[in-house]
Amino acid sequence: MLLKISHRTEYSYDSPVNYALQRLRLVPRTGPTQKVISWAVEVEGARNEVRFKDQFDNETRLVSAHGAPHVISIVAEGTVETHDKSGIYGRDNSLAPLWLFETETDLTAAGPGVRKLIKSIKAAGEIDRLHELMQTISQQVAYNIGATGPETTAEQALAQGSGVCQDHAHVFIAAARLMGYPARYVSGYLMMDDQVEQVASHAWAEANVDGLGWVTFDAANGISTDERYVRIAVGRDYRDAMPVSGIRLGVADERLAVRITVEQ
After folding, report:
1. Long-range CB contacts (within 8 A, 24+) of 91-95
2. Which residue in 19, 43, 131, 175 has the fewest CB atoms around it within 10 Å?
3. Bridge partners for 106 per DSSP
4. Handedness of CA 210, 211, 214, 220 (dihedral sign)
């Protein structure tokens, strides 16, 4: 499938900015499930500082701004050819060791809720157990925009029974690690069947299974990834793979607007 993606992020301020530094992970890479046909990232109102690959092999850029103008605009867009691999991403060339994805983070620490969740899984085979885990999370954590925030942990989302794709991924990662699987967070895009325009990117999880490599699980939708998905970055949790993040110094009030389109 050939997907056309446009991701526009705009920061506006009510007064000049003393200093702002933004980290961008907005560049997809060709791999087992996708081929990047064309891609460009354009930044207005900020200066490109450096480009590099981070510890998880994500294409990363730093841009800075200070003073006027009062608007920073970041547009990432292009075309990606995707392939359905039945949810199996396989192995990649990342230098990050598997044990790194076995380690808890603040957002994916397993507590009583995750331990109870694991005890409810009855399937025998490895893949069957992970698919049952995904379906159970999908049933127990309702999709509810605004129910959680960037700092919500897996335990908190599971306890309140609602969240967004970020929370579904964190709960799956916390449980999979406790079950003995290296697990990681993936940020990217999903072409929806009935909605071209979106207000946020998508996220899902991967578990590393012996003999298969990385296998994908989107607990927010109760499925493994297919040709409707485009991956951008990976990490231990949301903080490692978030598309845009940064810091700002000064007293200027900030307003954020995001517009994403994903279409065939």
Report:
1. 91/213, 91/214, 92/31, 92/32, 92/57, 92/213, 92/214, 93/57, 94/56, 94/57, 94/234, 95/55, 95/57
2. 19
3. none
4. negative
As a CATH number, domain 86-241 is 3.10.620.30
Query: What pTM, to 2 d.p., does this model score?
Result: 0.95
Boundaries of every domain in the chain = 2-81+244-263, 86-241
Give burial (CB, 10 Å; 0-12/13-18/19+) of 40.
exposed
Q: Are 183 and 205 in contact (CB under 8 A)?
A: yes
Say which CATH architecture domain 2-81+244-263 belongs to.
Sandwich (2.60)
Residues 6 or more apart whose CB falls under 8 angstroms from that of 119 comprise none
Is residue 217 a contact partner of residue 131, using CB atoms and an 8 Å limit? yes
- Ordered DSSP codes for 153-180: -HHHHHHHTEE-HHHHHHHHHHHHHHTT
Helix residue ranges per DSSP H, the chain = 112-119, 126-140, 154-160, 165-178, 238-241
pLDDT tens digit sequence for 25-58 = 999 999 999 999 999 999 999 999 999 999 999 9
CA distance 263 to 148: 27
